[in-house]
């Protein structure tokens, strides 16, 4: 009897410890992302490996830089943004003229960058066509040496693109900050007007990046408190499963995701046993529900 009690107690403590450990990890991940403000899922999705790679690449906003390297589209977006900022803050003639000067300065920067790198950008887009052609050749992707050629092409394309996009992104950010800075303190009370991104999708990495830090934080807090543990654990397991799927186990070049797999199954265990019943708020919620809504008993 005592032996069974000790085993049961150790099992409860183990489940409690597992819940707190996973909860703390989620909490710290979410808190760190929110504090730093620098979290981005794009980098991880870009290097996705395995059969779901096309899906994860689809989520990445402007994966190949086509939107930001589109001269006409970018300049049109910037001009429309200048008009929205002027209307949002109610600029007078002097402010509107200054806004036009700011826009022209950023336009010159952008056009100069594209013109100075025109030949390389043209080569880059031809490289994208070659990469996409090779990707569609199933036989090529199944042979290690040929697949390595595709990966080399991809690395070279990414390296070339990153240099241009870092400069262009700085221009986008500079235009947004400079135009908002023209507002007077009274006008500024209407709120900062953000410069939207071209080619956005309903569900892309920009949207995902806004959700994940808060998601991690909430999952961590609920697991630590032992509240809604089954649903929370399943949500955490699903999130970890997505991370594992980006680096499909056994896929060539995949980054091992051992600890994510272990934590995913840990979340499934928490959901299966209802770990919030052990020193968690789920126990109190269950007691309150039974007291307020006692189960009906059949009359004999």
Overview of this protein structure:
The protein has 300 residues and is mostly helical. 74% of the residues lie in helices and 0% in strands. Helix 1 packs antiparallel against helix 10 (205-225) and helix 1 crosses helix 12 (258-273). The longest helix has 38 residues, at 144-181. The two termini are 37 Å apart. 19% of the residues are buried.
Task: Give a brief description.
The chain is 74% helix and 0% strand.
Helix content: over 70%
What is the string of SSEs from the N terminus onward? HHHHHHHHHHHHH
Write down how many β-strands occur, each being a DSSP E stretch of 2 or more residues: 0
* Overall mean pLDDT: 89
How would you describe the shape? flat
Layout of SSEs?
Elements (H helix, E strand, L loop, with lengths): L1 H35 L5 H5 L6 H7 L11 H19 L3 H24 L1 H19 L1 H5 L1 H38 L3 H4 L16 H21 L3 H18 L11 H16 L7 H12 L8
Helix pairs in contact: 1-10, 1-12, 4-5, 5-8, 6-8, 10-11, 11-12
């Amino acid at each position: 009897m005592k032996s069974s009690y000790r085993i049961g107690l150790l099992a409860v403590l183990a489940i409690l410890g597992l819940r707190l450990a996973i909860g703390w990890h989620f909490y710290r991940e979410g808190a760190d992302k929110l504090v730093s403000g620098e979290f981005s899922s794009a980098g991880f999705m870009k290097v996705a490996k395995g059969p779901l790679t096309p899906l994860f690449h689809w989520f990445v906003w402007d994966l190949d830089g086509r939107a930001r390297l589109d001269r006409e589209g970018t300049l049109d977006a910037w001009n429309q943004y200048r008009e929205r900022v002027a209307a949002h803050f109610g600029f007078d003639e002097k402010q509107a003229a200054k806004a036009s000067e700011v826009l022209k300065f950023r336009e010159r920067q952008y056009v100069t960058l594209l013109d100075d790198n025109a030949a390389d950008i043209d080569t880059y887009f031809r490289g994208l066509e070659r990469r996409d052609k090779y990707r569609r050749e199933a036989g090529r992707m199944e042979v290690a040496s040929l697949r390595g050629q595709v990966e080399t092409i991809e690395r070279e394309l990414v390296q070339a693109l990153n240099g241009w996009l870092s400069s262009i992104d700085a221009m986008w950010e500079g235009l947004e900050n400079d135009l908002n800075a023209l507002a007077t303190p009274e006008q500024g009370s209407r709120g900062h007007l953000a410069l939207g991104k071209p080619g956005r999708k309903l569900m892309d990495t920009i949207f995902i990046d806004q959700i994940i830090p808060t998601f991690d934080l909430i999952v961590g807090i609920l697991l630590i408190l032992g509240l809604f543990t089954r649903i929370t654990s399943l949500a955490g397991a699903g999130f970890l499963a997505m991370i594992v799927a980006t680096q499909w186990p056994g896929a060539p070049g995949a980054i091992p995701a051992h600890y994510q797999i272990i934590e995913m199954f840990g979340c499934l265990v928490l959901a299966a046993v209802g770990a919030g019943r052990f020193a968690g708020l789920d126990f109190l919620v269950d007691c309150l529900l039974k007291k307020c809504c006692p189960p009906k008993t059949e009359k004999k």
